[in-house]
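Input.
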Amino acid sequence: KQGRAFANRDVIIAEDSRASGREIASYLSKGIRAAGYNVVHIGIAPTPAASFLTQKYKAVCGIVISASHNPAEFNGIKFFSPLGCKINEDLEASIETAIENCSSVPAEKEGTSYSEKGELVDDYIAFLKSTFPKDIDLKDTKIVLDCANGASYKIFKELGAQVLSLNTLPNGVNINAGCGALHTQGMQDATKDNKAYIGFSFDGDADRLIASDEKGRQLDGDNIIAAAALYLKGKEALKGNKVVLTIMANLGLINFLKANAIEPVLTKVGDKYVFEELEKDDLSIGGETSGHIIFRDISQAGDGILCALQLLAIVKYSGKPASAIK
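Output.
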């Protein structure tokens, strides 16, 4: 039904909760329509939602208006290819040059359209839920979520968990303000004080994750990658027995992987470079210490919420507390 609303000249736009997002979206929409394309605006939504929906509906591209983990006064634009991947550096540079050389926005072309379809995010939520094992019962599992006053979607209650949510009242200027993936102490304390099973902190556009064990100790991207790599290897699902890391990866993680017969592949800092390396060698998982983690067999983009679900499943299957990861 929703698929019929899409044509091969549609561009998907999403934004996080910054006050400047709507105005930027308005100018972008005019430019896109002036170029002869339609705009499908899905509203405030996680960056990975735009990636997923761009691929699902075969849009021309996806655009997210977000400055990710940065304070509210900053904003930026992220582009995704029709496959849901971040665009390469050359194309990115050419877009920046075109913007710098543009002195005015031409009129929208006749026959193009602008529509708001926030309901499409439900498809993304359904996808996330489908990635969580059906044989895991979360009925008595208490989880703390720090949504950074951003674009995070809280699906854990729908999976049956007991959820304590923090920083879920965005007002346009409080995104990432003393909370979220860069400021995790509040989430860690809440996890420990409320005797929760695990805690998760997302950044403003929900493409990165930092977790906490039940003792209130931080689990960063390196901890999560180590747990996921070992789990996938045990299932014989770790392609090439390799994991992609950046040059910022902790030496302890590198040595841990080698000790478990997993080869670390190092690349430049940035999740787009991690993805390129994963794609080049057809590998399963890679990421950054900062919490950008890509489960490439499931998604084309770093996704904090997806990562949280995968980590939760890994810990549940282990039969041990989350502190066993640390």
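The CA atoms of residues 89 and 272 lie 9 Å apart.
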